[in-house]
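Side project, low priority. Logging it here so it doesn't get lost.
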Amino acid sequence: MHADIVFTNGEVITVDKDSSIMKAVAIKDQTIIGIGQNEGVGGFIGENTKVIDLEGKSLLPGFIDPHLHLTIYGTNLLGINCASLETNSLGFLYKEMKKRAEHIAKGEWIRVTAFNENAIKEKRFPTIQELDAISTEHPIVIIRVCNHTSIANSKALELVGFTKESANPVGGEIERDANGELTGKMIENAHMQLFTVADYSADEIERGLKLASQVFVESGITSLHDAGSYGWGPDILKLMKKSIDSGDVKNRVYALIGSLTDSESFIRHMIDEGVVTGDGDEWFKIGPAKLFTDGSSTGPTLATRKPYNSDPTDTGILYYDQDRMNEVLGEAHSKGYQITAHAQGDRAIEMVLNCIEDALEKHPRIDHRHRIEHGGIASIDLQERMKELGVVVIPNPAFMYVNGDAYLEYYGERVDVMYPANDYLEKRIPFAFASDTPVVDHNPLLGIHAAVNRKTVSGQDVGICQGVSVLEAIKASTYMGAYASFDEKQKGSIEVGKLADLVVLDQSILSIDRASIKDLTVELTMIDGEIVYEKQYSKRK
């Protein structure tokens, strides 16, 4: 059998059970048909075989991101994106917003995304008065980078029905000033409720999906687990499937059944339709039922068992009480769903573990692979329960690089058990690294860098005891993502018979200084045996 494509002279990081490092790989159609040294794989080279000389560069399994927000990232690219603009002041941002107001029809939304008050010179949020000065004829919303907080103008508050007499929603706050007047700031579930009116059109979502997919492909993300979006879920799933079928979305998608605005309705709809985790195919598959338990690690609004170091009066926000969480996710479990929940603080993680334990006691199931998304402050006692219950954890190592300086302030010594990859390794708790983009950069190499080095962007050590090896970080960014979706027999490692989803880096990841991992780039991405992204490449035969 002759291969369609053969890679030679590489550092082939297979991520197989022996962590083998090979030199060559052969691809036929969608499948890996040969792995080994150059001489052995050379037998697959025929007259029409394309041979790619890797020149010692790393060839890895395609990156699998088990928690990102595909739709949100894509639609962010359609509006005023502070990350793209490198916004350094409110004045700069207001100029961009005024330009947008001048070029769109009255009544259309002005949306600003990825806003970070700590990254601008004023070190504060806009005021409602400042936003009203930009426009009272356009609803305006500025969404914080965490996607858990926003600030809006009077028009937007009017559309969502928030007044100074409105009660705070469970798990959220409509902020008021000392006189009881609305400030425009909405926290957690109040922010989520805004998007019942501020959501995007189907056309905007489809355009955003295409843009996001291309960015992810260029970063080597061949599969992703979509962790939900604003709006009601079933329609998003249909648009996602349509975009995959048309080729606009090139990544394989495992869709979590959760929404930032109304996860319960989404889960109920899917259960009533008879849909369950695993339905679908290798391109688009239904994932776990998902709820939100608490807030953001940088809000900070995550739910903790003892107060924040930065504020002895604050222990965060909970979206659910224990009984309600057990009821919603317990029913999903009983119907055959994998279940999961966003849980950042130790109080929230404990609730999710209680829920999983209750579900398994009532309806025992082997190899359920129930998950915890993020698992931010995972204390030792919680780790022991994760192991006992067979939970898969989805930590975000890049958070430690991007947000670690703030974590040291907010949580003090608790950073030593934040996203604790080394503890998970020692206890044999399965975990898969995720970006949670657009909260932080989607680049898997940044996550690997952060997991290996455990330093903040300013260079401070942050829970350095939780650092892992480069090979372990690669495994958590590839094979374990497949494991988290029951797909480890099809993808996640470079082995004969598996899908040909591969990534080539511009250097050897095992040879460079570990402090430079984040500076590596992707040169080539292959999905299903097809090269879907390629930079200039040398010595092509």
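Brief comment: The chain has a mean pLDDT of 95.
Revisit when time allows.
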